Amino acid sequence: MDLIKIAQETFQIEADALKKASERLDQHFLDAIELIYNTKGKLIITGVGKSGLVGAKMAATFASTGTSSFFLHPTEALHGDLGMISQGDSLLAISNSGESEELTKILPHIKRFEIPLIGLTGNPDSSLGRYSDVFLDISVEKEACPLGVAPTTSTTLTMAIGDALAVALMNKRGFKHEDFASFHPGGSLGKKLFVKIKDLMRTENLPVISENTTLKEAVVVMSEGKMGTVLIVDQNGVFKALLSDGDLRRALMKKDFDLNYPAITYATLHPTSYQDTELLASDALEIIETRRIQLLPITDKTNKIIGVLHIHDLVNAGIKSN
């Protein structure tokens, strides 16, 4: 038994079904798009068994791409959850045969409530096909299952149609990266588009010293600050220089090195800093990486330090540069 060949045949059967389904897309698909687009309430998806599992995935995809949606199991609907459906909603029902008992029992009630119904079924003459306001064909020539009974090709096609509807609706609504991120604030895209400098910068116990502080004292502050850096300000609190552990190592190589000299003697003058706390953290990380620094001082308009942004804080927050 060549299992690789069997797996390849499975791919081929399902790929062929997808290709044929794409070629038969017609006005019915466009009608489904318009119905969902004009739904003022929620798009409710229902189905039993494998169709129900696919439906739950479809509902999640719609919900995250701008179409308010949730999954409702037909059995639960029969026992009170029909109350979750209200005027202004639309229903998308999935059944390959179109005769799933639990599903067909709720169809008369759906019509009684005058809820628009999109039916995904392989049989237009079935109960679901007849009750549907819009019929979408999910028929397949054969399942990939060698017995021809386990939902395989049909569920793949159904999921693909759900994806096609969701993508088409995204395009029709002009759904953008920012919109997607707003539904995924905890994801990498959400962090990239919404987390700002002000959300991550440190503002307390900053390693700040005066321009008259000796290098010896600066090393103590650097150690206590645990940032590998000290920030140097003048008598008015204006940011003047930055002494990093790299500056310190380079200072050690100088012949005139003296721990009693002012730390500013060995510091980097006019270092990179930033004022706009509304800058995206991902953009700030790009500045840090481009300048090859570890710490980005944040100042106000008078160039006084209000915080610092450390590369470790960005990395630990899962921020990635553009």
TrEMBL record:
One Pfam family assigned to this protein is SIS
In terms of superkingdom, the source organism counts as Bacteria
**InterPro entries assigned:** CBS_dom (IPR000644), CBS_dom_sf (IPR046342), GutQ/KpsF_isomerases (IPR050986), KdsD/KpsF-type (IPR004800), SIS_dom (IPR001347), SIS_dom_sf (IPR046348), SIS_Kpsf (IPR035474)
Question: In Gene Ontology terms, what is one molecular function of this protein?
Answer: isomerase activity
UniProt KW keywords: CBS domain, Isomerase, Repeat
Name all SIS domain ranges: 32-175
List the SMART domains hit by this protein, alphabetically. CBS (SM00116)
Q: What region holds the CBS domain?
A: 201-259, 267-322
Q: Which residues form the signal peptide?
A: none
Q: What family classification does the UniProt entry report for this protein? A: Belongs to the SIS family. GutQ/KpsF subfamily.
Q: How is this protein named in the record?
A: KpsF/GutQ family sugar-phosphate isomerase
The organism is: Sulfurovum zhangzhouensis
